[in-house]
Here is the input.
Amino acid sequence: MTILRSAIFLVWFALMSATLAILCLPTLAMSRAGAAWLGRTWSLASLWGLRVFARTKFEVRGTPPPNGVLVAVKHMSMWDTMAVYALLDDPAIVLKRSLQNIPFYGWYLKKARMIAIDRDGGASALRAMAAASRAEIAQGRSIAIFPEGTRKTPGAPPDYKPGVAGLYGQLDVPCYPVALNSGLYWTGPMGFVKKKGTVVIQFLAPIPPGLQRREFMQRLESAIETATAKLVDEGQKQLAA
Here is the structure.
């Protein structure tokens, strides 16, 4: 049944995404607000489809952060991006530049002013990311970043990149760590398999601005990895029941 439900969701997801992308093309000629609305609508519709067709629900623990802060999110699956955009208020998400080359999807990312980074760009890419992030913070938006830079399977060793520390030092705002266990439910080759159960995303206590780089990274990794390990253990027990 898991494979059948996953296939039904995939068909619905593809049709829903294509329909929204085509119908909302006029928003590309309008203000950024139109693309931001589309991103949130698409995210909410995707989460709805997961619940209805794949029977993959989600639970939010803790309180989503206010605007104008840095949000560092554990990354296990595509679900994470949807959840971040649905639960936060119009965040600017740091993502790899190649995503902007995808027809339709990339066009809307650009219009919504997501922060694209060239992973091979070195120091210049980090400076550009910081400059773009400062501009969005000044507009009252939060910056959401996946500090490991790529998806990690549940239980994989952490690999936190320096970009999050660079943003933390440049922005001088609190950083809110976020733990989750989505990789247990959105899994399989190309993320095809969607398992029945409840994904948990947990917003943790903020890390205040002004800490030294090493202390910040230690606190961030400890907070996210400790909470994530507990959520993964909880999810594995749920799936085994």
About this structure: The chain has a mean pLDDT of 94. The chain is about 50% helix and 15% strand. Residues 2-240 form a domain with the Glycerol-3-phosphate (1)-acyltransferase fold (CATH 3.40.1130).
